[in-house]
Design brief:
Layout lengths: L14 E4 L16 E4 H4 L4 E6 L6 H13 L1 H6 L4 E6 L3 H10 L7 E4 L4 H5 L3 E2 L2 E2 L2 E6 L2 E7 L10 H7 L1
Parallel strand pairs: 3-4, 4-5
Antiparallel strand pairs: 1-2, 3-8, 6-7, 8-9
Length: 165
Amino acid sequence: MSALKAGDDFPEGVSFTYVPYSEDKGAVTACGVPVKYDASKEFKTKKAVIVSVPGAFTPTCQNTHIQGYIEKLPQLKAAGVDQVLVISFNDAWVQAAWAKANGIKDEIIFASDDGAPFSSSIGWTLGARTARYAIVVDHGKVVYAEKEPAKDVSVSGVDAVLAKL
């Protein structure tokens, strides 16, 4: 498979893993049990945004990229987005801790592209890590897909995504 572009069908067989939030596992250091998120199946009935970052807790990812999505989640929802997924190559437990550290329970799913199989399949990696990109899928159709050309957050940030919704 090559890079996704607007107009493509979202591919079959894409899944991620995440740890669903629960009150009894609400502490940042509490470990839940990862479950599969079947993105191909879920995206057939939803408008979803995938935000990919190279790594949890890294300066640009934490301070610049993800904060925009957290702060502008109401605008994303108002534009019809049903689900936002933040993915990275980190495992599901690191992603869960990152979500909790940002005060996120279940309003955004922080999932793992563990080993970067999805990102690799579309050619959007930084070495072994997931690259920085955003994909909008509307009921199975890709309507926006852009990988950052440099180390900034210009085409994958929340403002770029909101402009395409």
